[in-house]
């Protein structure tokens, strides 16, 4: 067992899979000699050589576009986009090709590709370094969208993503990269994709979140427990495909649901979960579903970023709203 | 001041518009046995285009992009590839696809609106045609890198049009492939038109081949109506790539004698008289004249070939028309390797509605 933070866990997962599967290659800007601007790929080029850990020219379109060609040939590329704010030039390839190749060839060709990108605000980063674009990708047929919220889940989910035979968008909350450490076995054990993780059991309200916001969500659950309100906390982890079963089972018991995400509200992934609750869980609900999200504004520069992101107070207030009249 | 770099772009043509040799032919072209398959493949493509347009006009297939007048490019390049190489085509490249072993039935199936048409039975690793402009060049560079990293002596070949040279994907892919010294051959079918926009509105550079210079690779220009010139350039580029010499760019100058697709009406934006004049340059007559001149072709052979092509084509059309539509659930079954649980419900609903409305509301 090793005490690892999230970015170290990401590094170990890639190293494990590269050591055990020669078809895995890592590519991106500064991922080789420099080991990545966040150090997610540190040591990989030294260990596996420049043919498998490629410092690419500076062009996101071609990083993902060439990775699709590699994947179609049976390599398992893990492409790093330096910040999710720079992922948009690659959207054409993700939408039009990665998620469609298997379908449009009726399974003859496939795209076992992972696109890793840091996401989220809260580290006083420059402009275009704080986005939470997960809903854009979750709208896409044919891909998976995964966001880890702890070192152990980052390790297990990234292994699962690399082993998955289809494209996975793997978004890593920068705020969690070095926030805390956990014991990580580094034993090559993957976690299941496509399931939610229940982080805390509770009876009064279900809090649903993912990524860095689980930090605030769990703090809110703790604060509420002091008041005698027992919140269940679910880490969605894989947004696409969404495991609604776990969420519906929880809400069937608690009767209340608050969805927390760092991305902006309109068209955010919380809306998808709320809609599913309306379709399949309405009669379990004792109160309207609440969403706690970033405001529908451009991610502010660092001085206002914590007013933009949901806070513990906002989550607690939303829970109290669901308890009104209870 | 000193000149720190100087570049040249060479243009090659072996046969003029009348099929007269303008210079000594390359060695492969001295044996007519090497030229006849190229001729047959070009004729078959032209017959296919005529038939496909007729099928579109009668509602038997959807929108179709003809290769009329550009047959020499696909045939010349694909004829220089090995079976284990990989073709990454655009949407006007069925001439190359047929040489690679894609069947006319498969092509019709694709244009007829059925994904099974891209599940080629022969070139299993070739990409399906790419509709978004220029993106395929990136995929081809990635395929080429896979060959390189696995130390396989294979080559990726890819086509794009003159319009696609305006896309960043094209430049990025050339640059990546060059940095990686990947075995890639990129072929521009410069047919002078990107739907309604002429070549001189795409770029002010005198050639498209010179776009290679910025990537630090070789770029050559050939007469794309001269299949010998295309084939010769492709052989050289493919051999070089296979030997570890890195990527090349070939600009093949042609002319789009037809509309952009069956959904287009080119008389809206170009002078039919100019198009008529361009027929004088087309590649099939050119090679036929040459073959006839050296005694390798005659009217009897031509009639025999046309009869043979027609029979082959008719059989392909018949086979296509006999293929029943895909099952409703097929749109779910190849989305992921394993269908996620949540999609199972949608799959069942789609199937239920398809079987209960009997397809009556959808024809």
From TrEMBL, chain A:
Domain named Transketolase-like pyrimidine-binding: residues: 4-179
SUPFAM superfamilies for the chain: Thiamin diphosphate-binding fold (THDP-binding), TK C-terminal domain-like
Keyword Isomerase set for record: no
Ranges in coiled-coil conformation: none
UniProt xrefs under InterPro entries: THDP-binding (IPR029061), Transketo_C/PFOR_II (IPR009014), Transketolase-like_Pyr-bd (IPR005475), Transketolase_C (IPR033248)
CDD domains xrefs: TPP_PYR_E1-PDHc-beta_like
Entry cofactors: thiamine diphosphate
Keywords recorded for this protein, A-Z: Oxidoreductase, Thiamine pyrophosphate
SMART domains attached to this UniProt entry: Transket_pyr (SM00861)
Annotated Gene3D superfamilies: 3.40.50.920, 3.40.50.970
PANTHER family, alphabetized: PYRUVATE DEHYDROGENASE E1 COMPONENT BETA SUBUNIT (PTHR43257), PYRUVATE DEHYDROGENASE E1 COMPONENT SUBUNIT BETA (PTHR43257:SF2)
Protein name: Alpha-ketoacid dehydrogenase subunit beta
UniProtKB/TrEMBL annotation, chain B:
UniProt KW keywords: Oxidoreductase, Pyruvate, Thiamine pyrophosphate
Top-level taxon of the source organism: Bacteria
All copies of domain Dehydrogenase E1 component, residue ranges: 39-319
Catalytic reaction list: N(6)-[(R)-lipoyl]-L-lysyl-[protein] + pyruvate + H(+) = N(6)-[(R)-S(8)-acetyldihydrolipoyl]-L-lysyl-[protein] + CO2
Enzyme Commission number: 1.2.4.1
SUPFAM superfamilies: Thiamin diphosphate-binding fold (THDP-binding)
Needed co-factor(s): thiamine diphosphate
Classification via InterPro entries: Alpha-ketoacid_DH_E1_comp, DH_E1, PdhA/BkdA, THDP-binding
Pfam families (UniProt xref): E1_dh
Subunit structure: Heterodimer of an alpha and a beta chain.
Role of this protein: The pyruvate dehydrogenase complex catalyzes the overall conversion of pyruvate to acetyl-CoA and CO(2). It contains multiple copies of three enzymatic components: pyruvate dehydrogenase (E1), dihydrolipoamide acetyltransferase (E2) and lipoamide dehydrogenase (E3).
Protein name as it appears in the record: Pyruvate dehydrogenase E1 component subunit alpha
Encoding gene (name): pdhA
């Amino acid at each position: 067992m090793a005490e690892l933070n999230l970015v170290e866990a990401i590094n170990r997962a890639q190293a494990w899979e590269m050591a055990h599967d020669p078809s895995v290659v890592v590519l991106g800007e500064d991922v080789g000699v420099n080991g990545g601007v966040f150090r997610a790929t540190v040591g990989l080029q030294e260990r596996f050589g420049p043919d498998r850990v490629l410092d690419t020219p500076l062009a996101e379109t071609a990083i993902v576009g060439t990775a699709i060609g590699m994947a179609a040939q049976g390599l398992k590329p893990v492409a790093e986009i330096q910040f999710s704010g720079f992922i948009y030039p690659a959207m054409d390839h993700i939408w039009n090709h990665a998620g469609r190749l298997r379908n449009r060839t009726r399974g003859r060709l496939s795209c076992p590709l992972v696109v890793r990108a840091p996401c989220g605000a809260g580290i006083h980063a420059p402009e275009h370094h704080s986005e939470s674009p997960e809903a854009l990708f979750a709208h896409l047929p044919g891909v998976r969208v995964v966001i880890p919220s702890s070192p152990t889940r980052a390790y297990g989910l990234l292994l699962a993503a690399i082993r998955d035979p289809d494209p996975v968008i793997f978004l890593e909350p920068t705020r969690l990269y070095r926030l805390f450490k956990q014991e990580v076995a580094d034993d090559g054990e993957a976690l299941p994709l496509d399931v939610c993780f229940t982080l805390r059991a509770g009876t009064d309200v279900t809090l649903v979140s993912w990524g860095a916001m689980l930090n605030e969500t769990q703090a809110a659950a703790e604060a509420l427990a002091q008041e005698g309100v027992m919140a269940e906390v679910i880490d969605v982890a894989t947004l696409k495909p969404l495991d609604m079963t776990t969420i519906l089972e929880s809400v069937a018991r608690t009767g209340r649901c608050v969805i927390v995400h760092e991305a902006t509200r309109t068209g955010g992934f919380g809306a998808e979960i709320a809609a599913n609750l309306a379709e399949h869980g309405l009669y379990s609900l004792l109160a309207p579903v609440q969403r706690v999200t970033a405001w529908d504004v451009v991610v502010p520069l660092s001085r206002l970023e914590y007013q933009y992101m949901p806070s513990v107070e906002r989550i607690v207030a939303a829970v109290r709203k669901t308890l009104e009249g209870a | 001041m000193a000149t720190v770099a100087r570049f040249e772009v060479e243009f090659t043509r072996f046969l003029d518009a009348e099929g007269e040799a303008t210079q000594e032919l390359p060695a492969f072209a001295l044996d007519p046995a090497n030229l006849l398959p190229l001729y047959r493949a070009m004729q078959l493509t032209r017959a296919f285009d005529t038939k496909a347009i007729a099928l579109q006009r009668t509602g038997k297939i959807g929108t179709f992009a003809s290769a009329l007048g550009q047959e020499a490019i696909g045939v010349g390049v694909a004829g220089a590839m090995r079976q284990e190489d990989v073709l990454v085509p655009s949407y006007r490249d069925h001439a190359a696809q047929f040489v690679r072993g894609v069947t006319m039935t498969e092509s019709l199936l694709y244009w007829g609106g059925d994904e099974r048409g891209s599940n080629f039975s022969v070139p299993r690793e070739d990409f399906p045609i790419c509709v978004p402009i220029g993106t395929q060049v990136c995929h081809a560079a990635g395929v080429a890198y896979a060959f390189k990293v696995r130390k396989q002596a294979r080559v990726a070949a890819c086509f794009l049009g003159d319009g696609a040279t305006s896309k960043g994907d094209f430049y990025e892919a050339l640059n990546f492939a060059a940095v990686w010294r990947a075995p890639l051959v990129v072929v521009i079918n410069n047919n002078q038109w990107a739907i309604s926009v002429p070549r001189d509105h795409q770029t002010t550079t005198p050639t498209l081949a010179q776009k290679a210079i910025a990537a630090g690779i070789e770029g050559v220009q050939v007469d794309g109506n001269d299949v010998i010139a295309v084939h010769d350039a492709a052989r050289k580029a493919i051999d070089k790539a296979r030997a570890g010499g890195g990527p090349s760019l070939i600009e093949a100058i042609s002319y789009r004698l037809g509309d952009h697709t069956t959904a287009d009406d080119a008389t809206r934006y170009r002078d039919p008289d100019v198009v008529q004049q361009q027929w004088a340059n087309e590649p099939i007559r050119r090679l036929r004249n040459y073959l006839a001149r050296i005694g390798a072709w005659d009217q009897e052979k031509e009639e025999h070939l046309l009869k043979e092509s027609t029979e082959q084509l008719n059989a392909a059309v018949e086979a296509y028309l006999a293929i029943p539509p895909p099952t409703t659930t097929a749109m779910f079954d190849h989305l992921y390797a394993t269908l996620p649980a949540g999609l199972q419900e949608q799959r069942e609903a789609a199937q239920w509605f398809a079987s209960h409305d009997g397809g009556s509301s959808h024809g």
